[in-house]
Amino acid sequence: MTVTAPQGFEAAGVAAGLKSTGKPDVAVVVNRGPRKVGAAVFTTNRAKANPILWSQQAIADRVVEAVVLNSGGANCFTGAFGFQTTHLTAEKAAELLDVSAGDVLVCSTGLIGTGDETFRSRVLDGVTQGVAALSADGGQAAAEAIMTTDTVPKTAVIARDGWTIGGMAKGAGMLAPGLATMLVVITTDADLEAIEADAALRRATHVSFDRLDSDGCMSTNDQVTLLANAASGVKPDLEDFTAALTELCRELAAKLQQDAEGASHDITIEVVGAATEDEAVEVGRSVARNNLFKAAVFGNDPNWGRVLAAIGTTGAQFDPYDVDVSMNGVRVCTAGGPDRPREEVDLTPRALHLLIDLKTGDATATILTNDLTHDYVHENSAYSS
User: Fold this and answer.
1) Is 288:265 a contact under the CB 8 Å cutoff?
2) Which residues have CB under 8 Å from 380's CB, separation 6+?
3) What's the pLDDT tens digit per position in 40-50?
4) Of 149, 181, 187, 373, which residue is the catalytic one?
5) Is-catalytic flag, 181?
């Protein structure tokens, strides 16, 4: 049931005509619980879509009654008209739910520049349909309605002693970090203070969604929202809740990685022996964004030289001639030179574990990415049609 697994939440997903396929394209998630705590993180792209501009204002009081999401159009770079569309979307939901428009967050995903009069009309109609269809079993429909180039809906549930967290996510491209990297809604019936929800969400996203780097392209519409309603009556230890939330976010991040556009390999880059965690992240991300390495993986070529070349562009502390590189358990490079024969590395499985040992300190970090394929190029060259 995803976002409706915790007590006190309802959701819906409906078809409003935004997608040419006729598939569901508007989702509504509503908090019916005794508390209306909200927290959110947003893209750090300076070019922000109208729903982001709206939601950043609305979340300021950390009260959220509902989230409205649409696929089939980003409503980004659509000017004052587009911001008014987002405002009207929140107002329509607020009117139907008898809440304040300032307590309704809005999310959009799709082609940038899409958001004309027809778009507005269909989104508002979708809100009306969505509110009418709200149910405690509507989580799966909502997860399907936010899909764009996704091939499958992405959901996760974590249950603990007396309380639950549920989540849904969309994203298959333009996955690069900036706190949030996609559209995600997470719900919980745990009893949290607003400051606790915010702190837990930021800690969880920092080591999950922020470590997913599919193609190095940061979106204009990314948002991760957490809703907490205390419907369980249980107030968990904050560390326990943060650990569970992190587990859920990592599960969703892995599902996003596995559905990356056109990918044939899921690449886990584990950096160990770094001087600091930030440097470990920098090294991992340098490899994740290296098209030569990603193309080599697509060709099942364990080209460790491209790994060393990538990390050499960073400012991290290491000796290039004292680095080890292993692929799927085979150490192909040691002390900056060849080790085991390349033929021992089997890259035909979808999963690739790349281990980089900088031998400088004790810090570690893991970055998730994927290979660069013909299908990725084709999908993104044909996307606007």
Assistant:
1) no
2) 173, 261
3) 999 988 999 99
4) 181
5) yes
